[in-house]
Amino acid sequence: MKSKILSSLLFWIVVAIVLGIVCSLFFPEWLARVFVTFNGLFSNFLGFFVPVLIFALIAPAIAGLGKGAGKWLGVTAGIAYASTIISGLIAWGTASALYPSLLGDRTLNTDVADPEAGGLSPFFEVEMPAPFAVMSALLLAFVIGIAMTAVKSDNMYRVLDELQNVILKVVTSFVIPLLPIYIFGTFLNLGMNDNFGSTMAAFGTVLLLSVVMTLVIILLLYVVAGIIAGRNPITALGNMLPAYFTALGTSSSAATIPVTYASTLKNKVDENVAGFVVPLCATIHLSGSMMKITLYALAIVYMGHMDVSAGQILGFLLLLGIMMVAAPGVPGGAIMAAVGLLQSNLGFDESAISLMIAAYIVVDSFGTAANVTGDGAIALIVNRFAAGRIQGYQLEDETRELDDASPSTPTSRVESGSTRA
After folding, report:
1. Which residues of the chain have pLDDT under 70?
2. How is this protein positioned relative to the membrane (predicted)?
3. Distance (Å, rounded) from C-alpha 32 to C-alpha 59?
């Protein structure tokens, strides 16, 4: 039992979070900057690697869909968009019900320090440009995958099979073992950041509410997914905890894809369904981000006594659900995609935008964690109808234990499996 706990990725992630917070209280700056430097290098590597990972997982899955590619793509995108919009509507209802009592007569204070500017700087940086952007990887995977359903090329399938195996080997042997160190550095830097205090003072109540509501939306998603898929929602949610805590440390849906994929497999989701849904939803499903942005925006509207109609808010939510699809799965991507709508639809000025960005960054990881955990719920729903209908590439059973791989002794192995029917 003890060895199983020590070899669990979830255990090491929790340890990394706790140690990062504790060590921030007494670490000298020079030592903390060593970990910040590592985080910068590892983050840049993830920026380079994630588009390739998305392509390697989605292209064969799309090809395996055959003539039904458009159908399952549409179903998944529709579920993700509905989840994101419903999250926004719940946030709107929550704000309308609670803000009069929570915020009372508070006025808007936009004099906050930039949280990112308060963090420690690395000793050096190494740029690692990605071969293509995340959205480009997604589109390329769709184009090639759909084209392969018409042009039945055994050679192309073998190439994608080998590419997928190579990429997943990098995941199991390099990315996952280093994640606890990366998460430790993130929370260490967070704890030593002096600029978070001003944001918490100006927006503290709303920040805490947003964290609670991201947990509520996760529970709702798994209750619905459990009913549709016939699974115990608590068990399914428990299997996704490694993905949740990893996202807390990375603040990136894209960087968490390997762990989300492994956690989804533990819920007995078909491997080809998981390989299709998880990378896709990492880009298009942002229910947690929608919850946070809506709560923050409406708090500013309330405290700033802004004249915004219900129609404007509804239009903002519907457009935001589309605009955030263009947000890369990287820290702060969703709020950057929302800036234009905040200005044009809700009339936010520069000071209000600055407060929105600062508040979002302070608890960015909680929205990201809700996003990726929700991806697992969507995978359960799609699996209920698509399991066995997506004939892609199978991964050997060891891949199901990605989250059990020890950070120091990864043992997972990826092998070539069944061929396309």
Report:
1. 1-10, 61, 64-70, 105-119, 193-203, 325-333, 336-337, 350-351, 354, 362, 388-421
2. Multi-pass membrane protein
3. 40
CATH number of the CATH domain containing 203: 1.10.3860.10
The answer to whether residue 341 sits within a structural domain is yes
pLDDT given at position 68: 57
Contact criterion met (CB below 8 Å) for 358 and 199: yes
What does the pLDDT read at residue 420?
Answer: 34
Task: Report the sign of the C-alpha dihedral through residues 167, 168, 171, 177, in that order.
Answer: negative
Tell me the per-residue pLDDT of 31-81, one tens digit each, with 9 for 90 and over: 999 998 998 898 888 878 878 887 887 787 677 665 555 678 888 889 999
Q: Give me the count of residues in the chain.
A: 421
Domain count, the chain: 1
Establish if 16 belongs to a structural domain.
no
Give 408's DSSP letter: S
Q: Would you call 387 helix, strand, or coil by DSSP? A: coil
| Interior angle at CA 168, CA 140 and CA 126, nearest 5 | 75
User: Dihedral of CA 319/325/328/330: which sign?
Assistant: positive
Q: Give the integer Cα–Cα distance in Å for 134 and 326.
A: 9
Q: Is residue 6 part of a domain?
A: no
Ramachandran region of residue 305, left (φ > 0), alpha (ψ -120 to 50) or beta?
left
Following DSSP, what letter does each residue of 231-284 receive, concatenated? --HHHHHHHTHHHHHHHHHH--TTTTHHHHHHHHHHTT--HHHHHHHHHHHHHH
The burial of 255, by beta-carbon neighbours within 10 Å (0-12 exposed, 13-18 middle, 19 or more buried), is given as: buried
Give me the pLDDT at residue 232, please. 92
Domain that holds residue 92: 23-404
Residue found under tokens 């029917």: 421
**Which pLDDT score is estimated for 380?**
94
The whole-angstrom separation of Cα 179 and Cα 410 is 12
Tell me if 338 is assigned to some domain.
yes
Tokens of 282: 């990492």
